[in-house]
Write a structure and sequence with these properties.
Elements (H helix, E strand, L loop, with lengths): L3 E2 L4 E3 L4 H4 L9 H8 L7 H4 L14 H16 L3 E3 L5 E8 L2 E11 H5 L3 E2 L6 H14 L1 E2 L3 E5 L3 H10 L6 E4 L5 E7 L2 H12 L4 E5 L1 H17 L11 E8 L5 E2 L1 E5 L7 H7 L4 E5 L11 E6 L2 E7 L14 H10 L14 E5 L3 H10 L5 E5 L4 H9 L10 E2 L10 E2 L2
Parallel strand pairs: 6-11, 8-12
Antiparallel strand pairs: 1-5, 2-3, 4-5, 4-10, 5-12, 7-21, 8-11, 9-10, 13-20, 14-18, 14-19, 15-17, 16-17, 16-19
Helix pairs in contact: 4-6, 6-9
């Protein structure tokens, strides 16, 4: 079986894409999703966040939530808002955000290659979030949230994409975030075969975002295989929905930190404690790190530039060399006393899409005591960690622009 294969996707009817497309399920909480879907009966949030159609105090993991999602899904199918394509194919998905553009391939990726680490991971998953995605996939018998994959760019794929996107897209919408989403169907058999063979010749793919979705797909596949006496490996559950972008088009933003207190330090003693591992200097305004090993620090209305001392950078450990690790190991844990940033309530994380002003706002309001701005993790660093079979620290990458939910789904029946 190949690494990826074409599939007959479930897409919005031609005149419904704007009504259907929704932000990814995991970037909105229930209240935000309820507000975004208000007055939009065909928003995919009614499927991906179905608690919005139940009483506000409903536990989002309650069985009634998954049942409501199935009900909403069936209603959209019955009304023709969502329609399955007639034959298997690939899809090209273009995202435009400001001056940035990236084009990826929507495909079904093989679960067994995820299981064998040919589709490589770089994050731990949480059992409760995995369980949620398993229940969501099983209730719909469909994968509706694509896994965001990347690969080392290929000139063959670049040429195929360039040829395919010369025509008008089948779907072309601009979300309320200003991001433009365009989709082309790839139905030519020769082009499909070349795409399949080119990807199958690759050593590996990398998960950029979607570790819980891919882990859940693996669990669903294992359960359905065990329950199917006629299993032959060709069933749809052996694959998972993915959008695969070349590494040289990926756009990673900084993922910044804000901390509630100074762990008993005064501002002066806190800054003095940093001298062991960093050079510290005041700046005349906001400081956005220009390169790896630099950090911006905002404290009491003042920005500082921090630079890690070279002797503090491990030479051969792809995880410990990451800026998020250098900051954690030399400042956040030893100075601020936060050993487990996954669970400690004193720390919060701010995606770079919100800008440095959001860091200033969180500190100036008194909610937080100090903010730390990081340089973005690079794709080369992410791949090095995954290739080493290691795991990145939490909140290491923030990818933009985000994929939309609802434009293509993968049916398992």
């Amino acid at each position: 079986m190949p690494l990826i294969r074409p599939f007959a996707g479930l897409c919005p009817a031609p005149d419904r894409a704007t009504e259907v497309a929704a932000p990814p399920y995991d970037v909105l909480d229930s209240n935000e999703a309820r507000q975004r879907a208000a007055g939009k009966p065909w928003s995919f949030l009614h499927i991906s966040k179905p608690e919005i159609d139940l009483p506000p105090d409903t536990d989002p993991y309650d069985a009634s939530v998954y049942a409501k999602g199935r009900e909403n899904f069936e209603r959209m199918l019955k009304e023709g808002v969502l329609q399955q394509d007639n034959a298997p194919g690939y899809y090209l998905y273009r995202l435009i955000m400001g001056n940035h553009q990236q084009i990826g391939l929507v495909a079904a990726a093989r679960v067994s290659d995820y299981d064998s680490n040919r589709i490589r991971k770089h994050e731990f998953t949480r059992p409760d979030k995995e369980d949620d995605r398993v229940r969501q996939i099983d209730s719909l018998s469909a994968q509706t949230g694509p896994v965001f994959l990347t690969y080392k760019h290929s000139t063959v794929i670049d040429e195929l994409v360039a040829q395919a996107v010369t025509s008008a897209p089948d779907i072309d919408i601009t979300a309320d975030t200003g991001v433009r989403h365009s989709l082309w169907r790839v139905t030519d058999s020769a082009r499909i075969d070349l795409i399949t063979r080119t990807f199958d010749a690759m050593d590996c793919l990398y998960i950029a975002d979607g570790h819980h979705r891919s882990a859940a797909a693996s669990r669903v596949a294992a359960a359905r295989k065990a329950a199917n006496p006629n299993h032959n490996g060709e069933e749809a559950y052996n694959y998972f929905l993915s959008v695969i972008f070349p590494d040289n088009q990926m756009h990673i933003l900084d993922y910044n930190r804000v901390i509630k207190d100074l762990n008993g330090h005064s501002p002066d003693s806190f800054l003095a404690a940093l001298d062991t591992a960093f050079t510290v200097e005041k700046t005349s305004g906001q400081y956005k790190p220009a390169q790896a090993g630099e950090f911006g620090l905002y404290l009491k209305g003042q920005w500082y530039r921090l630079a890690i001392k070279p002797e503090r950078i491990p030479q051969h450990d792809p995880v410990k060399r990451l800026d998020v690790s250098l900051l954690q190991d030399n400042l956040i844990e030893p100075v601020l006393g936060i050993a487990d940033p996954r669970r400690d309530k004193r720390i919060d994380f701010v995606g770079g899409i919100r800008g440095l002003k959001e860091l200033e706002r969180r500190v100036d309001s008194g909610e937080m005591a100090v903010a730390l701005a990081l340089h973005p993790t690079s794709m080369a660093q992410l791949m090095a960690v995954a290739d080493a079979g290691e795991v990145m620290p939490p909140k290491s990458t923030w990818f933009e622009p985000k994929l939309a939910d609802g434009l293509v789904s993968h049916l398992l029946d």
